[in-house]
Amino acid sequence: ANENRSEWVIAPTCYNHAYLGIDNQLWKTEDGGASFEMVYEFGSIASDRVTGIEISRVDPQVIYVVQRSSGNTKIYKTENSWVTWNLLTLPAAFNSAGGIFISLSAESDDDLVIAYSVGGNNPNKVFRTQDGGNIWTNYTSNMLNGHWPEAILYQGGTDGAIYLASNFSVFYRDDNSTDWELINQGLPAKFMTNEL
Predict the structure, then answer these.
(1) Is 72 helix (H, G, I), strand (E, B) or coil?
(2) pTM given for the model
(3) What does the pLDDT read at residue 113?
(4) In the predicted model, what is the mean pLDDT of residues 116-141?
(5) Is 189 exposed, middle or buried, given 0-12, 13-18 or 19+ CB atoms closer than 10 A?
(6) Which of 34, 83, 106, 137 has its CA 20 to 30 A from that of 131?
């Protein structure tokens, strides 16, 4: 996935169940892709694309969806498979005009990291919430200066390990870290990734 198109996400409950964003709609298959059913339509503008999907491994009814529209990116959350949904309040310092990459902890429905697709020395690139989006902690540091986030991954079964891929490098941090650690040993001088 990238900030401009959807990803295919397999549900943690069954390998034949998956979600996919098509334009401004979220679609689901329960037969490995032989047929699809529209689950939810986010507004009426097709170009306001669903670009990110995260399904909870703790409770698969909890799903986060990123929708990118012209000038505004939103994150929606449902706790009951789209019977009802909430629009998350993004961090105040967060410029939501660009794309957002998301990754959800395997151990908590409320522990989410987001990376904003922006480069340069922008001080608002990566954020984490541990309460479902009420309070956000800025994880951006000078280590990320000059880098454009391209993907983010919350590693399950760890002490909060987060991997961030940029246009030049891969970074790592966990709950015991005070800053990002560069871990691009053995990688080419410049590489691009759209998924971790």
Answers:
(1) strand
(2) 0.91
(3) 97
(4) 91
(5) exposed
(6) 83
Between residues 96 and 56, the one the model is more confident about: 56
Signed CA dihedral, 91, 88, 1, 160: sign only:
positive
Matching residue, tokens 């198109």: 5
What confidence tens digit (pLDDT) does each residue in 9-27 have? 999 999 999 999 999 999 9
Q: Which residue has the tokens 């454009």?
A: 148
97: left (phi over 0), alpha (psi -120 to 50) or beta: alpha
Contacts 24+ apart (CB under 8 A), 87-95: 88/64, 88/132, 88/133, 89/133, 89/134, 90/114, 90/133, 90/136, 91/124, 91/127, 91/136, 91/138, 93/123, 93/124, 93/138, 94/124, 94/127, 94/136, 95/122, 95/124
Q: Encoding tokens for residue 28?
A: 């689901």
**Cα–Cα distance, 121 to 104 (Å, whole number):** 26
DSSP 8-state code for residue 144? G
**Amino acid of residue 62:** V
Q: Residue 114 above 90 pLDDT?
A: yes
5: nearest Cα among 19, 17, 18, 23: 23
Q: Cβ atoms within 10 A of the Cβ of 90, count?
A: 20
